[in-house]
Write a structure and sequence with these properties.
Distance between the termini: 6 Å
Shape: globular
Strand content: 5-15%
Radius of gyration: 16 Å
Number of domains: 1
Largest sheet: 5 strands, parallel
Number of strands: 5
Number of helices: 9
CATH architecture: 3-Layer(aba) Sandwich
Bound molecules: adenosine-5'-diphosphate
CATH superfamily: P-loop containing nucleotide triphosphate hydrolases
Helix content: 55-70%
CATH class: Alpha Beta
Structural class: alpha/beta
Strand order of the largest sheet: 2-3-1-4-5
Length: 186
Amino acid sequence: MAARLVIFGRQGAGKGTQCEFLTRHYGAVHISTGDMLRAAAASGTDLGIRAKSYMDAGQLLPDDVMVGVVQERLDLPDVAELGFLLDGFPRTVPQAEALCALVEVDLAVNLDVAEDVVRDRMLARGRADDTPEIIGERLAAYAAQTVPTIAWFAQQDRLVTIDGVGEPSEVSNRLTAAIDARLGSR
Ligand code: ADP
């Protein structure tokens, strides 16, 4: 049966690498709201123009906008067939509530890397959008909004937390071991 997963991880936690691995491993559809919004911004759609100002400031878009974007994507037929790996959504408790009213989520996975560690990594990679101010904004939004969202999944007994520090392949092994243990052999 198709896996329906949500992944959490701070910016710089290696979530991109692990999402690539997990979508290949489980054959699920990778739904990255960050990628979708960047594509919309690049092609200059109304959503993209609106999204850009939030993204440039390291702030979250309004929940109703994001829920609409994700709902539209989840409605496409590949998702029903293959399952999904949601990456970047939900980031707030209202988004999580809206998601779980739309579809069943098997498990949320928290790829855990401490704030100090990701801050140092992001500063070291020196991308144009990684100024100390923007990094601080994004980490503050994560602490204020997304950490409570992770706790929400834990309350529903639908969370596993994985130590995200280590070689990428080692982290991948931890992820599949934890996911398979929870989902059983399907
Ligand atoms: P980051 O670059 O912080 O790792 P993403 O690539 O997932 O994060 O998303 C980039 C930006 O897009 C976020 O900083 C935010 O402005 C916006 N965004 C993406 N997903 C969401 C969401 N679920 N809710 C609100 N805003 C979002």
